[in-house]
Each structure stands twice: as C-alpha cells, then as structure tokens.
C-alpha cells in the first residue's frame, strides 16, 4: 500500500482575498518525484506556500506529512516544517557564516543539542550532495550550483518526509542545472519524496516524471508522451 505524503481534495487556494487555484485534487505518494509547472503567475508559488503553511488553506481539504492544513494551528507550523525540506531558488544561505555553521544553525533551531551528532549529520548530508570538503567555506566562495547543493543538504538535515524544491535551478546555467538535478534524482532514488516547481522544460524532457500543471486557476496532471 503506497503511503500518501500529500493530498488535496476540492481545495481552493487564496492569496489574501484573491482566488488563485480552485478545486485542487492532488495526491503524492512516498517516493514520488513530481514536477509542478505553469507560467509565472499561474499559482505555483501559492501552491508551494500553502504546503509549508505560509498561506493558510481556507477551503477544501488538505493534508501533508500527517498534518491537516485546514485545522493547522500556528503553534504546530514549526513541527510541520521540520518534516519538510524546502529548497529555494535563491539558496537563502546565511552569508556571514561557513557552510558547516549554516547547517549547524538549522540543527540547533530544530532541537539538536549534541555536538558530535550534529557534526556527523552535517558530514552525512554534505556527502549526499557531493560537497563533503566545503564545510569550512563561506557561501560567497562557492559557485551558484555549489550553493544550491548546500541548500539541498540543508533541506535533508532532519530526514524530511517531503522535499519542496521551488525553482531550484532557476538561477543556474543549463549545465549546473543538470548537476543539481542529478543530486535531486539520487536523493529521490534513496527514497525521498520530492515536489519540484520549475519552468525548465529541458529538465522535464531529460528526466521525465509525474507532472502537475497550474493553468487557469486549476491544477491538473499532464500526461507526458514517451519519446
């Protein structure tokens, strides 16, 4: 029996008072790799923000990693976010501290106490993204692709049940995008569930997978033709 990680039933997503997406019915299961595509302004960001409770779900039903988005209380949002790994387009690394210190900051913020355990976990996630030797560097000493790998490592720290990657290759050149995509593919093969918003259709062709499209206030699955 496949385990549902994310499900929306007849949900409507609002940005303030404006309806962005209506009648959303989506299901993502453990181990899936799913793309979310759509033009700028089609609702991709609002959809993603609803998932990590930046936007409240006002209408319909939605659950993500065993949290009910409709009844989610403010005090539970940090616990929801601990079960999610979020990767942003602009990396969002703290520029005044090293890679290791960036990762340690997240672990401390999410309740880790033991120095040795933290060091071990940081080494593990950096190994997973091929950045094991960069812990002592500052973000500005890394290329964009390397910074995004660190951002992915950061998203993995707490063994998230779902990784939300919001345009993770948006600021990268095509070659670097492929390298970052390979990292995400490897992570997915290790059992991590990934939902990736993107406008990079070249990646969809190179790594075909289940695809959801935001268009005209709807979200629907796109059936990809096998080449």
From TrEMBL:
<dbReference type="InterPro" id="IPR003593">
    <property type="entry name" value="AAA+_ATPase"/>
</dbReference>
<protein>
    <recommendedName>
        <fullName>Cell division ATP-binding protein FtsE</fullName>
    </recommendedName>
</protein>
<comment type="function">
    <text>Part of the ABC transporter FtsEX involved in cellular division. Important for assembly or stability of the septal ring.</text>
</comment>
<dbReference type="GO" id="GO:0016887">
    <property type="term" value="F:ATP hydrolysis activity"/>
</dbReference>
<dbReference type="GO" id="GO:0005886">
    <property type="term" value="C:plasma membrane"/>
</dbReference>
<dbReference type="InterPro" id="IPR015854">
    <property type="entry name" value="ABC_transpr_LolD-like"/>
</dbReference>
<feature type="domain" description="ABC transporter">
    <location>
        <begin position="6"/>
        <end position="225"/>
    </location>
</feature>
<dbReference type="InterPro" id="IPR003439">
    <property type="entry name" value="ABC_transporter-like_ATP-bd"/>
</dbReference>
<keyword id="KW-0547">Nucleotide-binding</keyword>
<dbReference type="InterPro" id="IPR017871">
    <property type="entry name" value="ABC_transporter-like_CS"/>
</dbReference>
<keyword id="KW-0067">ATP-binding</keyword>
<dbReference type="Pfam" id="PF00005">
    <property type="entry name" value="ABC_tran"/>
</dbReference>
<dbReference type="GO" id="GO:0005524">
    <property type="term" value="F:ATP binding"/>
</dbReference>
<dbReference type="GO" id="GO:0022857">
    <property type="term" value="F:transmembrane transporter activity"/>
</dbReference>
<dbReference type="InterPro" id="IPR027417">
    <property type="entry name" value="P-loop_NTPase"/>
</dbReference>
<comment type="similarity">
    <text>Belongs to the ABC transporter superfamily.</text>
</comment>
